[in-house]
């Protein structure tokens, strides 16, 4: 008995993110996403486990969490009974193959994985059985919710072999809520049909959170040979397929090579079902192959078998749809492509670029590690995901942003659950009144990126409604006068739906927190901030770090308003008269910003004027005076944080305190249990401009001392010790996992972004390199290409694919590293590339969209100058020298120059760099 050495990891094999991996079945928890725009969402492992669904209430395969990937026996399968040798699974999902894989490697299958932008292929062969199977899976880019698989079996022996092929896909066919709650009872609802090409299940009713309803959804497993030949029979009932004492990884119908139980036209009621399709017995000569196509479909009503047979059930259609699928995803990811001195990193970034699209399609649920929620996204996710969509899918973002602002309440809070349709907002899951104090900060960050990319300043003045429900005063009170039948739009006293400009929404979200402070004059933590795990300091907790974020927003908004006036000539803006009370410098009643009581009193007075309705009266405000008011507030906050929240420990290290706990105690610094420090507490003071350059240098030293770990990178926090019930549930997690001291990619990437933004390029690059090296080191991370949500204490990548960190990494690489960004519609090219990021010819380039044009921006650095040594010498557009405005060490190009370019062409901008 011997053990084979584990694979050294995946390697890229093409120019479109294709990669290969040997022995993928020897790594646990690997899974791969398959999805389309029609709403089919699947995951698949090297042994074909995973699930397939359309939403929370429509699972074709049983819902799986990460542990189910190896605990469950009921995965996709394709069995080959070989005459004289017995049963063999093309998925490797048989009792004997699992035993061989773990305990007797001499008899184990040889397995090889190939994958690309959303197609997945596993080749498995066994010399003892004399057979090889190649299984390719994808979800086609059609209007149907369907997953396709082609299984090609080949005789690799030197003799003829007789084979009996059987596809076996166990149905679940109902809501995920029923996985434990009435699992058996809901099987009694099943109506199972055999057809010419497969098995279909349509439950009579659905038992889920929506109530007992007549069910229309049907689930099908259809199959054919390569030429369209139908199966010869079926085993549609699970308990009969596995047999008494059998299991899905050793079913009686397969291991005894039983005759098919049913043919086309049967109807069986009230059992767990399986799409077990028996194909015709065949004799395979040495080297001969046979192919089978399997379609797994979710339909509204009974499946149109004839149409699905035509559209999907042949090798020719499979190949054509696979090529379409590749072209679709290559084009999607090709919207942004990087070319540097490291081709592996460039290919890896293709998978990072894909991840925000996956998050849009899957939401924050529906992959094995994302075993929470019921689909959709929360408020923060919505805005941060738009950062990447602005780069990749900019066409629809304006309307998306506009729709999102309808979720803002007049008290500065917002709906936290966003439905699938525009304007579909809820207070929270199960109507729980909870406010995350950071939520108001993200919309302006995203809107500012949109305005810089587009120059569409008119967006600020678009009217939009406000969200209204019974929760008022940031969910600290109830409005007894509001009734659900009044609808979820704020109204005026005379009953008309109230609208305010997008600018008004932004002001409300960012000015109200300025007044909503705790005992140390920082913004109250409330239900939590970015770190949802800091959720147990709702009374006295304060978030210093997001106080810095809001300060940066107020400063940037002030600057933007002055630029808008300069660009457009707009001198006044309208806001609701109630809000004027919060813009205190514009009134006769000034607020003492150092007085916590004054701030709270002013905010309470405002709350009481907007409890149920608003007047609807607008006042005109001078834009320069408004900008000055915002800047005064920002300057006060920045000074306050620099003076009161900059701490030094006994060893002489200095950094920003990030939080106060529910006992009103400062969280960070020296404690009897050791040094406490958070990465989040450093990111936003740096990013927002609160930290001075000297403070940044000292902060970097402190982060390296207390948070940097050679094995897992930059920890989210140091070891606090104990469960911290006065701060949050995150500290109940084991240290080094998730929000308690793991390398949490989102905040690590934002740390890099902040450093780049403030000109600390080498420090930022070190951070980004650590993320890449950890993620791509397969021996440790055990994930496919891309960035995970976090790296755990052992270095394993966790919660892969659906992480907001991908949006931030894409944004950072494009706008900071490659320096391609907008400035109220103009194109700013200001690279922050170091010498090693240029190729052998001294070039680095990126393809991206700007001003609705596809651009390839090439930086030429023939002298191999390092960052800080170069500036722009010359700019060419499609080979012609053009004029530009100097901007730092970069250049600024007018939008009109780009707008005049032809559509549907790739245009080249060449930027020559030379020594300063």
UniProtKB/TrEMBL annotation:
PANTHER family, per database record: CELLOBIONIC ACID PHOSPHORYLASE, CELLOBIONIC ACID PHOSPHORYLASE-RELATED
Keywords, alphabetical: Glycosyltransferase, Transferase
Gene Ontology biological process: carbohydrate metabolic process
Pfam family, one: GH94_b-supersand
Glycosyl hydrolase 94 supersandwich domain sequence ranges: 62-303
Domain Glycosyl hydrolase 94 catalytic: 630-813
Lineage, top ranks: Bacteria, Bacillati, Bacillota, Bacilli, Bacillales
Protein name: Cellobiose phosphorylase
UniProt entry tagged with the keyword RNA-binding: no
Highest taxon, organism lineage: Bacteria
Gene Ontology molecular function: carbohydrate binding; glycosyltransferase activity
Signal sequence, start to end: none
């Amino acid at each position: 008995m011997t053990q084979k050495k584990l694979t050294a990891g995946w390697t890229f094999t093409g120019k479109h993110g294709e990669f290969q991996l040997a022995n993928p079945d020897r790594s646990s928890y690997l899974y791969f996403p398959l999805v389309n725009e029609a709403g089919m969402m699947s995951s698949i492992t090297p042994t074909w486990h995973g699930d397939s669904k359309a939403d929370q209430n429509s699972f074709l395969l049983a819902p799986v969490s990460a542990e189910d990937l190896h605990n469950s026996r009921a995965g996709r399968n394709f069995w080959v009974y070989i005459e004289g040798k017995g049963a063999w699974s093309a998925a490797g999902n048989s009792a004997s193959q699992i035993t061989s894989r773990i305990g007797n490697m001499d008899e184990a299958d040889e397995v090889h994985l190939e994958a690309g932008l959303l197609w997945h292929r596993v080749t498995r062969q066994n010399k003892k059985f004399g057979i090889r199977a190649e299984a390719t899976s994808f979800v086609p880019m059609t209007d149907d919710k369907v997953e396709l698989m082609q299984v090609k079996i080949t005789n690799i022996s030197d003799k003829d072999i007789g084979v009996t092929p059987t596809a076996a896909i166990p149905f679940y066919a109902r809501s995920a809520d029923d996985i434990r709650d009435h699992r058996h009872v809901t099987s009694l609802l099943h109506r199972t049909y055999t057809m010419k090409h497969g098995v279909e299940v349509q439950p009579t009713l659905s038992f889920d959170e929506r109530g007992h309803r007549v069910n229309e959804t049907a689930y099908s497993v259809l199959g054919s040979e390569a030429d369209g030949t139908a199966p010869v029979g079926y085993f549609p009932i699970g308990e009969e397929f596995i047999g008494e004492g059998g299991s899905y990884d050793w079913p009686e119908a397969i291991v005894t090579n039983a005759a098919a139980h049913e043919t086309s036209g049967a109807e069986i009621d009230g059992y767990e079902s399986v799409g077990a399709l028996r194909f015709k017995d065949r004799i395979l000569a040495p080297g001969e192959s046979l192919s089978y196509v399997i379609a797994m479909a979710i339909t509204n009503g009974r499946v149109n078998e004839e149409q699905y047979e035509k559209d999907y059930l042949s090798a020719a259609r499979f190949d054509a749809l696979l090529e379409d699928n590749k072209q679709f995803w290559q084009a999607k990811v090709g919207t942004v492509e990087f070319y540097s001195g490291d081709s592996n990193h460039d290919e890896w970034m293709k998978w990072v670029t894909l991840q925000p699209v996956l998050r849009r399609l899957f939401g924050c649920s529906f992959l094995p590690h994302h075993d929470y929620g019921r689909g959709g996204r929360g408020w923060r996710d919505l805005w941060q995901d738009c950062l990447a969509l602005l780069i990749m899918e900019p066409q629809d973002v304006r309307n998306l942003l506009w729709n999102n602002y309808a979720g803002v309440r007049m008290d500065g809070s917002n709906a936290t659950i966003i439905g699938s349709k525009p304007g579909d907002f809820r207070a929270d899951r199960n109507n729980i009144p909870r406010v995350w104090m950071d939520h108001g900060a993200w919309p302006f960050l995203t809107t500012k990126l949109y305005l810089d990319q587009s120059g569409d300043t008119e967006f600020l003045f678009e009217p939009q409604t406000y969200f209204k429900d019974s929760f008022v005063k940031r969910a600290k009170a109830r409005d007894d006068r509001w009734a659900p039948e009044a609808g979820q739009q704020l109204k005026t006293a005379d009953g008309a739906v109230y609208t305010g400009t997008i600018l008004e929404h932004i002001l409300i979200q960012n000015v109200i927190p300025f007044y909503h402070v705790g005992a140390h004059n920082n913004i109250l933590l409330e239900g939590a901030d970015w770190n949802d795990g800091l959720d147990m300091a709702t009374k006295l907790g304060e978030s210093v770090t997001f106080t810095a974020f809001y300060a940066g927003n107020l400063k940037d908004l002030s600057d933007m308003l002055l630029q808008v006036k300069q660009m457009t000539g707009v001198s006044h803006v309208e806001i609701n008269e109630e809000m004027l009370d919060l813009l205190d410098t514009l009134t006769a009643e000034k607020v003492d910003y150092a007085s916590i009581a004054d701030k709270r009193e002013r905010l309470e007075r405002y709350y009481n004027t907007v409890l149920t309705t608003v007047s609807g009266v607008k006042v005109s405000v001078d834009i320069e005076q408004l900008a000055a008011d915002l800047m005064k507030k920002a300057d006060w906050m920045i000074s306050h944080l620099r003076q009161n929240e900059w701490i030094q420990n006994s060893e002489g290290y200095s950094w920003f305190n990030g939080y106060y706990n529910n006992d009103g105690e400062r969280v960070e610094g020296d404690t009897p249990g050791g040094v406490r420090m958070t990465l989040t507490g450093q990111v936003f003071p740096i990013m927002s401009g609160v930290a001075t350059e000297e403070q940044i240098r000292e902060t970097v030293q402190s982060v390296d001392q207390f948070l940097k770990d050679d094995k897992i990178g930059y920890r989210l926090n140091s070891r606090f010790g104990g469960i911290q019930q006065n701060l949050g549930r995150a500290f109940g997690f084991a240290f080094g996992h998730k929000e308690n001291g793991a390398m949490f990619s989102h905040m690590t990437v934002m740390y890099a972004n902040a450093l780049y933004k403030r000109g600390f390029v080498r420090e930022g690059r070190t951070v980004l390199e650590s993320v890449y090296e950890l993620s791509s080191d397969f021996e440790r991370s055990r994930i496919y290409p891309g960035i995970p949500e976090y790296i755990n204490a052992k270095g394993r990548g966790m919660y892969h694919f659906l992480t907001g960190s991908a949006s931030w990494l894409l944004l950072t690489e494009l706008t900071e590293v490659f320096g391609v960004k907008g400035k109220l519609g103009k194109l700013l090219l200001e690279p922050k590339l170091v010498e090693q990021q240029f190729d052998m010819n001294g070039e680095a380039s990126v393809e991206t969209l700007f001003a609705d044009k596809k651009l390839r921006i090439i930086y030429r650095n023939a002298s191999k100058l390092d960052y800080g040594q170069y500036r722009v010498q010359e700019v060419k557009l499609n080979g012609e020298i053009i004029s530009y405005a100097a901007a730092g060490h970069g250049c600024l190009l007018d939008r009109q120059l780009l707008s005049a370019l032809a559509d549907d062409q790739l245009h080249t901008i060449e930027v020559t760099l030379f020594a300063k």
